[in-house]
Design brief:
The protein has 415 residues and is an alpha/beta fold. The chain has two domains: 184 residues, 3-Layer(aba) Sandwich (Rossmann fold); 209 residues, CoaB-like (Rossmann fold), CATH 3.40.50. Helices cover 34% and strands 23% of the residues. Strand 6 and strand 7 form a beta hairpin. The two termini are 28 Å apart.
């Protein structure tokens, strides 16, 4: 298995908030935004007042494809996306360049402009690309600030060393945009699943009634696709079995099998089951299908009521565990009532290692949404993830799965 760091750079579907502060290196920010977009990221730019002395907001808007924000209280922008919503939107906040002044304010929790406010209000990863004079970089104050930020899991990318705009030579130059893109990609990567094979189902299923009608559900595929992508970032060899979905397939996942019905999904899963280490059943599979499928379109009749008979579809997770009892398996439970108790019943009935449960009632309905909240239920208890973007939830879920998978292996090896 290749090390995940050897994977080509792909930030497809990732949401990156690019902060630009007031240093001469701001001219590189336009190139950075362009390169991030080229590898599939959606980029929104926030500029400080001082940064506008070095590069225009029109330039950043042109290369990012999105309107640039600079004011904390912007009535026009607030109508569409408040600063809190913008903080929640981002998968990662990248500040490039990050001046000594900005680093100091970030270290001490200032929220005196839009960018520092977003950093303080966000639960997402934060990375900074320092850019300043070599003496400013080497000063004890700056080094103390950098060390404090690292202790808070904020990533410092660089700086580089070389000729500086002031005419001096030394450390303090902002990294080149292509190197920052590579390191941003690594923020989503880990070695949690290196060497493992992971099989994921995603999307919905379509159970045909006649050639033009069928039974399905509102699953968009977003959660399953995000999990498959996060597993690849964690170093796994991922096979994705996808039913119908409205969300684009994750381009980082090389092995994708498209299916339509529950029975087709079961067949694809069983065909690719050998050698898998982890099975994650995210797909929203129809519990029932019409007993018969009409050969031609059903016409409107005189009767007020059309009666159909349905039969149960296979339970894919249960059949997987029947065939490979020791396979580490994760199921999903979408419930409208009694979320935890119903999920626990599924955990036991299906002999799963973990059930990820989410509510699909009222305003908490996650079907089709970019956001989700999961309750992870195993035999030890319950762990909550979110509310957060599904891309963020997916990364955290993969870490939870990895921890349980490796803990189980350690326990079995000591018996």
């Amino acid at each position: 298995m290749n090390n995940p760091k050897s994977h080509p750079v792909s930030l497809h579907g990732k949401r990156i908030l690019l902060g630009v502060t007031g240093g001469i290196a701001a001219y590189k920010s336009a190139e950075l935004a362009r390169r991030l977009c080229e590898v599939g990221a959606e980029v929104r730019v926030v500029m400080t007042k001082n940064s506008e002395a070095f590069i225009s907001s029109l330039t950043m808007q042109a290369v990012s494809g999105n309107a640039v924000r600079s004011e904390t209280f912007d009535e026009e922008a607030e109508a569409g996306m408040s600063h809190i919503e913008l903080a929640r939107w981002a998968d990662v906040i990248v500040v490039a360049p990050a001046t000594a002044a900005f680093i100091a304010r970030l270290t001490h929790g200032f929220a005196d402009d839009l960018l520092t406010t977003l950093c303080l209000a966000s639960e997402s990863k934060i990375a900074i690309a320092p850019a300043m004079n070599r003496v400013m970089w080497s000063s004890p104050a700056t080094q103390n600030n950098i060390n404090q930020l690292r202790e808070r899991a904020i990533t410092a990318m660089g700086p580089d060393s070389g000729d500086q705009a002031c005419g001096e030579v030394g450390p303090g130059r902002m990294l080149q945009p292509e190197e920052i893109v590579r390191q941003v990609n690594e923020l989503f990567s880990s070695e949690a699943l290196t060497g493992l094979r992971v099989l994921v189902t995603a999307g919905s299923t379509w159970e045909a009634i006649d050639p033009v009608r069928g039974i399905t559900n509102l699953s968009s595929g977003k959660m399953g696709y995000a999990i498959a992508d996060a597993a690849v970032h964690a170093g796994a060899d991922v096979t994705l079995v996808s039913g119908p979905a409205t969300h684009p397939l994750p381009n980082r996942v090389a092995n994708v099998i498209k299916v339509t019905s529950a029975r087709e999904m079961l067949e694809a899963v069983m065909t690719h089951l050998d050698g898998q280490d982890i099975f994650i059943a995210v797909a929203a599979v129809a519990d029932y299908r019409p007993q018969t499928q009409a050969a031609s379109k059903i016409k409107k009749q005189g009767e007020e009521v059309l009666r159909m008979e349905f039969v149960r579809n296979p339970d894919i997770l249960a059949e997987v565990k029947e065939k490979v009892p020791d396979l580490f398996s994760v199921g999903f439970a979408a419930e409208t009532d009694n979320l935890i108790s119903e999920a626990r019943k599924k955990l036991l009935a299906k002999r799963a290692d973990l059930i990820a449960a989410n509510s699909v009632s009222g305003e908490s309905n996650a079907l089709g949404s970019d956001y989700n909240t999961l309750q992870l239920i195993d035999r030890a208890g319950v762990v909550s993830l979110g509310p957060a973007l599904k891309t963020r939830i997916a990364v955290d879920l993969i870490q939870e799965i990895s921890a349980r998978f490796h803990a189980r292996g350690t326990l079995q090896s000591t018996r």
